[in-house]
Design a protein that fits this description.
Blueprint lengths: L2 E4 L18 H13 L5 E4 L7 H4 L5 H15 L5 E4 L2 E3 L3 H20 L5 E4 L21 H12 L5 E5 L6 H7 L5 E8 L15 E6 L5 H19 L4 E5 L16 H18 L4 E5 L5 H16 L2
Parallel strand pairs: 1-2, 1-5, 5-10, 6-7, 6-9, 7-8, 9-10
Antiparallel strand pairs: 3-4
Helix pairs in contact: 1-9, 4-5, 7-8, 8-9
The structure holds zinc ion.
Zinc ion binds next to loops.
């Protein structure tokens, strides 16, 4: 079995305007690098991510929010202009399709892995999701792809315990908002302290380990935190599947954050998750792209992550 790679051309059509760091070129950079390095030959591509179903979305978001969001995105899709949902989060005519493909990719990847048709999966999708709360779009995010997929695994596919791992430089406040105190989900995260969205220092539930770290923290210190704080808690929880919010903006070359990870750190963290999944979760991992804004560092880091997922 192989590592599946989910995406859809619609994910590149979502464009928040000139100069916005969360840009379509992010996905092209990843795809180009995978082709150039031969990684594209060892993964199984699924460029046909379906649109997420309403029944799956409302397992993570309120029906009222989905209605409001869909009304706005449908309206924007009929025009030509951009509409800001928050200062950083902008809808263009193609946004509705991209949002639904991104969440749909996460759900389809979850089904493929649970059905045993792929060992694990990486979803190279935009927009990202981990800042989208139950009731709000923010921080470049509209729907919480990982939370929707995790709830699909639990509510639709009947798993009893799943873990969410978030190593984006920004705290995954949206995921925390959605999963706090859901005892079927255990969440671990690491993020830059006193930084957007300025949350996470006091966890909202007992089912999570939040580790804020100061600016300029490097990979060896972050590996120690993973070893000492994440892995024992995940071992004790024994997840049947692991979801990853794979943001690569903690890379030392990424100007949106001030942490010091490099490709080898992403490979190391991923390998530890692969080992944990092999022990407790029949190897099941679904990872979704979140941040990562230096195009070269993003592509190299995503490749390191996927190499570890694929064991090559
Ligand atoms: Zn981020």
């Amino acid at each position: 079995m192989t590592t599946a790679f989910f995406s859809h051309p619609d994910c590149k059509r979502h464009d928040m305007g000139r100069g916005h760091p969360e840009c379509p070129a992010r996905l092209s950079a990843i795809e180009d690098h995978f082709l150039a390095t031969g990684l594209a030959d060892v993964i199984e591509r699924h460029d046909d991510a379906p649109l997420a179903a309403e029944a799956d979305i409302v397992n993570a978001h309120s029906t009222e929010y989905l209605r409001e969001l869909d009304d706005v995105l449908t309206e924007v899709s009929r025009g030509e202009g951009l509409v800001a949902l928050d200062p950083d989060t902008v809808a263009c005519p193609a946004t509705r399709q991209a949002v639904l493909r991104a969440a749909g990719a996460a759900v389809a990847a979850t089904d493929l892995v649970i059905d045993g048709k792929a060992s694990n999966a990486f979803c190279a999708v935009r927009p990202p999701g981990h800042h989208a709360t139950r009731n709000e779009a923010m921080g470049f995010c509209f729907l919480n792809n990982v939370a929707i997929a995790a709830r699909h695994a639990l509510d639709v596919r009947g798993l009893e315990r799943v873990a969410i791992v978030d190593f984006d430089v920004h705290h995954g406040n949206g995921t925390e908002d959605i999963v706090a105190n859901d005892e079927r989900i255990f969440m671990v995260s690491i993020f830059q302290d006193r930084f957007y969205p300025f949350s996470g220092n006091v966890p909202l539930g007992d089912n999570m380990v939040n580790v804020p770290v100061p600016a300029f923290t490097k990979g060896d210190e972050i590996r120690a935190i993973v070893e000492e704080r994440w892995l024992p808690a995940l071992e004790a929880f024994r997840p049947q599947m692991i979801f990853v919010s794979a943001g690569f903006d903690a890379h030392r070359e990424d100007d949106l954050g001030r942490l010091g990870l490099v490709e080898a750190d992403y490979e190391w963290i991923t390998a530890r998750l692969v080992a944990l999944a092999a022990k407790h979760a029949q190897g099941r991992i679904v990872s979704c792209l979140e941040g990562g804004y230096n195009l070269s560092a993003l592509a190299r880091s995503a490749a390191a992550h996927v190499r570890a997922l694929a064991g090559v």
